[in-house]
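[step 3/7] fold_predict: job queued, chain A
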Amino acid sequence: MTGRETVRARRAPGRPPRDAHAAEAPPHLRLVSPSRPRHRSPEDAARDQRRTIVVLLVPTCVLTVVGLTMILSAGSISAVEGYGTSFWYFDRQLIYAVAGLLAMIVAWRLPHTVWQKLAVPMLVVIVPLMVIALHPSRGTALYGASRWIDLGPVTLQPAEFLKLAVVAFVAMVLANKWHKLDDPLHLLLPIAPVMLVLSFLVILQRDLGTTVVLCGTVMLMLFVAGVRLRYLGWTAAIGLAGAALLIFGEAYRRTRFVDAFLNPWSDPKGSGFQLIQGLIALGSGGWTGVGLGASRQKWDYLPNAHSDFIFAIIGEELGLLGALFVLAMFGLLIYAGIRIAVRAPDTFGRLLAAGITAWIGLQTIVNLGSVTGLMPITGVPLPLVSFGGTALVVTLAGIGVLASVARSVASVARSVARTGQTRTGQTRSGGRTRKARRDGPQR
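[step 4/7] structure written:
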């Protein structure tokens, strides 16, 4: 007899297990397990909610301000050369920052369950926009990629909206199939075909970096949902094989991977130029940097200094201490997202918060890996910091969704408290009635 059978034999007959939900449900990870909710007073829940939202919003605001400052510094030279004013990139990013803060406030005030209903409609709207971005007469191509839609004063990048939509869609599917996650067929449908179509559209836009972020986010969501590791292993193997085929199937990707990543010094003035200049910028900063605005690499030495490689300028101007401060802010932001996911009141909220946290964290890792030479250059922006209006607005909206999930914890606590008070009052009332009936009418 095994140890588990012995424990079952010792249990008194007819006694139910401690957690009926845990007995019925598959062995998911504790992050999103349907465990018994923590009973806390509304005051404690509200205090915890305020603390969590502060931990979330402080690094968000700090990183946004750092991004605006560094865009003004890193993009001033290229802005003067291209548009006649050093404030061109800064002014546009400031407008998008205001729009992103408004989107964050709206998402914060909305119940997080709204995204469960909006997941499919968002995909239905975004997919045609992805196709429009590919059309030569409607889309805008830059550096060989067709990712943007020119709307006159603003430029729209549909793939950025796709990140939030995919997170909401996968969270909805996993929440609806919570007790069927051990069945491979239920895992494949409809997540696999939808992701294949979306990844194909992103690949057509020649945006392998966004494809990696999307697929990696979905994999992390499946992991925290408790999907069996062998299923994830087979999926990861297929994904790596597909990525290798995409890298070595296109000449520019093959050159970027073999020459620019594995051996950039073989062509220091060609394919390896950007990475080498980025490393020079990071190495020139020392402990405290050369000073804000005093970068030398931004003088047309480092391409995309204000966008994908802005972290290299941060390291040059603010030094190792400034770079570590930025990394600490990202770490605090990810910590807040994990804290919100763990304490979310329902399964969909946990998965939604975990997906948004995974998306922001994975994109940060991919960007920093590209700048430091630990990963191939993919063209993925640094969240909240790099120049990019659509990316900034969508990221701030996603952080607003995280705040909405955190806010729902206090709402559920107040609801539970009101329900408990009502039941207590009914029990007391019923007790008085039974006593009156037992004692008979008073004369």
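[step 5/7] annotate
Strands lie at 139-142, 145-150, 155-156.
The chain has one domain: 59-411.
exit 0
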